[in-house]
Specification:
The protein has 259 residues and is an alpha+beta fold. It has helices at residues 10-17, 21-34, 74-83, 93-103, 134-144, 147-150, 154-166, 211-224, 237-246, and strands spanning 2-4, 42-47, 53-60, 63-68, 88-92, 106-115, 128-129, 171-177, 180-190, 194-202, 229-233, 248-258. The protein starts with a strand and ends with a strand.
Length: 259
């Protein structure tokens, strides 16, 4: 069964957030940002027949994020997606592929990855706080990733981000070169064990010069300093090759289902 999160089952939700720590940390961070009674975001926990949590679910703006131990009923999940008119589902690849057989739609997939080494040597440089420069951050992302042009608008994106930034739940950085913002990267979510790196981007004119690697290494060191493990999802299999060079290894495969 899938239940709305309330005071009596919040711990079950948090337990399920630990099953997959990239999407799980995103669910956990969202709950801390919005709260269980928010009208802007929804939180649910799925239990098995014995009342044990099998998945945490978080929805905002018709996007559903799922952290599961692999025992969530796909049929029940498909019914939930239909009932709530979900347009995008982020989950494990196995669940994504199974959902597509029921719901149709288009899928994308690549790797969950976790960093396996120690602090990294950096060339000279510094990322600056992008909190007060979100318009520039969004511009870099739009120039770098089609998703930010086709699926996101600045106002809701920045409102969500500022809510988390103001509560200390995420961090956003900019990279400048010759006085121009050319790259960005974020610690998009955290839990007690990991920090999730996301939204790493370099505008096309400055790619191939090591800036993306520098941003990633900087964020890795920043998360390691907190005593946590850096994790991320690679956007594409080709991008995963770059993360492997930094020290990340695949821990599974994620999927996105667009309906």
């Amino acid at each position: 069964m899938i239940w709305k999160v309330g005071k009596n089952n919040t711990q079950n939700f948090l337990t399920a957030c630990s099953y997959e720590r990239v999407f799980g940390s995103k669910c956990r961070t969202a709950l801390a940002a919005y709260g269980e009674t928010s009208s802007e975001a929804g939180f649910w926990v799925a239990d098995d027949n014995e009342g044990n949590p099998v998945a945490a679910l978080f929805e905002r703006d018709e996007v559903l994020v799922v952290s599961s131990n692999g025992r969530l009923s796909i049929q029940e999940m498909a019914s939930f997606v239909k009932e709530h008119e979900i347009k995008e589902v982020d989950c494990s690849w196995e669940e994504c592929a199974a959902l597509q057989t029921i719901l149709g739609g288009r899928t994308e997939s690549s790797f969950y990855m976790a960093y396996q080494g120690g602090p990294l040597q950096l060339t000279e440089g510094l990322l600056i706080d992008g909190t007060n420069r979100l318009q520039e951050v969004f511009s870099v992302l739009q120039q770098s990733h089609e998703y930010y042009t086709t699926h996101l608008k600045f106002q809701p994106w920045s409102q969500d981000l500022m809510l988390k930034l103001n509560k200390g739940l995420c961090e956003v950085f900019l990279l400048e070169h010759d006085g121009k913002a050319i790259g960005t990267g974020s610690v998009i979510s955290e839990d007690e064990a990991v920090g999730a790196i996301g939204a790493v981007a370099v505008i096309p004119a400055y790619r191939g010069k090591g800036f993306g690697s520098f941003i990633t290494k900087y964020l890795v060191n920043h998360i390691l300093e907190k005593g946590k493990q850096p994790v991320l999802i690679s956007g594409y299999d080709e991008v995963a090759k770059l993360y492997r060079k930094v020290g990340f290894k695949e821990t599974g495969r994620w999927g996105e289902l667009y309906l």
